[in-house]
# Entry
Amino acid sequence: MKNRTLALLLTLLMIAPSVIACSESTTNAPEETQPSAETPAAEEVVAEEEPEEDARLECKVPADIDLGGETLGVLSFRDANNNYHISATETTGELLNDAVFSSNQLVMEELNFAFEFIDNGSVDPMNLQNAVAAGDEVYDIVYGTQWKVAPLVSQHIFANLNPSAGGYIDFDAPWWYDKYIDETEVDNTHTYFLAGDASPDIIRRSSMMILNTDMLTDVGRDVNDIYQTVLDGNWTYDEMSELVSTMYIDTNGDGQRTDADSYGFASWTRSDVDHFMIAAGVRGCSRDADGVPYITFNNETTVKFVESLVNFLWNNEGSYYVEGTPTFEMLAQNRAMLLCEKFSRLDLIRDSDANFTIIPLPKVDNTIESYSSLVHDDALILCIPIVNTNVEGMTAILEKLSYNYYYDVMPQYFEVILKTKYRRDSSDAASQMLDLIHDNMTTDFAYIYNYGMSNMMLSLRDLIGISKSTDFASTYKKSEKAYNKVLGRLIEAMMSE
# Structure
């Protein structure tokens, strides 16, 4: 699928706030959690000028589709820390909620149906599995947590949403995230999971770094120099390590390295390894001529990444990593200069007095072509249970929903909330950092299906975060046969319908 970055950026410049109709825990468990902030209070929506003409792209769903007034069940997984939810049932004055509500209402009116939002209550997929096993069509669309629903693909419980199978999903449209969807596929004809603007959780669970600009100034660095380093493609481990090494202060004077001191970098969770790994250029799989994945995890890039991150976390005086460290408190009190985080967690520091900006995670070195922002495995992805008797109709809903969200939801989140409400630096360069991260959201086949591949990718969490070891090659060798065996079974299951 071709890159659609330019189309997205041009369209974001032409948005209108009004909705216009579519014309056509184990060591390998997901990220640990810190206490969530309360849901933000109602916000005043500032009216924007209407463009002179509607330059919207065409939504190719036929205008005459009618779902007959059906009530359709939408099963949604979410954790306790996710303030945003697809099931907006009323306007509240909060930008994202109200944009979601309006877009949902419009799609229901256009296709003549009603959503029934069903909260899964946890990330456990048992409700979904039991319903499919019983042939029960209670769930028509599923917003599932990636690390829980992706391994279920081998159980043949999801419909194939690839264009070759029919339906209305337009993979060439900019409201679908092609880099992510490509990685979910086992070849060019089997697509069981979707990621796009219909699930704003994708970008909210993407990785970035928070840079405390007050502390940056304290160590004699100019944020514009950091921006330029990023834009020049030179934001690498060497650059990050040098910057972080300039900041360590025994703040309380007790002679001990604790979270009461000040650091260049602080981490509170082993899952940061996932984000650094993908950003560094590490991938678990490559593809053959037919698009079928094969394991290439053991290579020079992975080896160099492991050595670089171990050195950064454990041998850099300015780095501090302890599970459960209150990193946001440290940043707010100017005791942490850099954090590895996800966009969703900016909700928790929006009221902080600390000045900060956003930059991408570093590449392992400048031989890596581009920056990457990992879509974390707790993101909500889209799928349709195979027991659904009207998969085509469900694809019409998802296409229209993603189309509307592209114009009326995501601009509110990305352009208004991230770039205006949450941002402390209003410069063009700071805006470019956000665009750069957004345009490089990605994942890896072996990361998506990690829990169906013997935890191959997440094995680095323990190797780096617990063992502090750089001996990746021999560790990998012990499990290489098992990894290839389970991958073969997974591919076979995904390609058989």
